[in-house]
Amino acid sequence: xxxxxxxxxxxxxxxxxxxxxxxxxxxxxxxxxxxxxxxxxxxxxxxxxxxxxxxxxxxxxxxxxxxxxxxxxxxxxxxxxxxxxxxxxxxxxxxxxxxxxxxxxxxxxxxxxxxxxxxxxxxxxxxxxxxxxxxxxxxxxxxxxxxxxxxxxxxxxxxxxxxxxxxxxxxxxxxxxxxxxxxxxxxxxxxxxxxxxxxxxxxxxxxxxxxxxxxxxxxxxxxxxxxxxxxxxxxxxxxxxxxxxxxxxxxxxxxxxxxxxxxxxxxxxxxxxxxxxxxxxxxxxxxxxxx
Length: 291
Fold this sequence. Notes:
Helices cover about 35% and strands about 20% of the residues.
């Protein structure tokens, strides 16, 4: 990037040596691994003060240490995004530590796949609770730090993570597809209600990104919710490996699956001043799949 582009919409960019998100504060949920971890590391590298959260305290501590090792400012808040007290805990902690909030990245989530006719109520409800209700409650809690007077405004945005399942549906994912479609409507509403306060709201709809949620189910990855173990992954999926070949991805024009780095870069773009006039948008990050 040329130094002539050091200013974008009044904000400093990485070309100034201070980072695209210099001195901005970002809350990132589900930051213990995968897309959340990579996004937190990238934001910190770009000058943000990051408030990271995850249900897995051990993994979260590891990410906190990584960020500190690269010289970043970080606050780790362990918790379940679906818990009633979580929004107040993370928002109050962020403001106490850093004095403000510029961005929220609602990334936390998991899949709990079953065919529609065999999906019990609780399996449907838990996915909507984590992917729709939890982001809504966190955003609502942070409202006083976004609905600001003109002289208090900085670059501020909300990012809700969706999926191509929310755009097109997917076999075995009636619950997940419903939830990921719902956050798109939530995002567009935020864009309309909070736009007058200078707040942007966007959704990222990921296609195949290589994480534990898209790895082979046969690998045995699980997570525990409410005392129950939930198997993660996709039956027979081909994960990212040195053995992967372009022909393994015939439906993706780029002929590969995405990486957490690919995902984090898309999120960084949308929160940064480079996307200062982008709001209410759903950015598909799919390698061209579905076009």
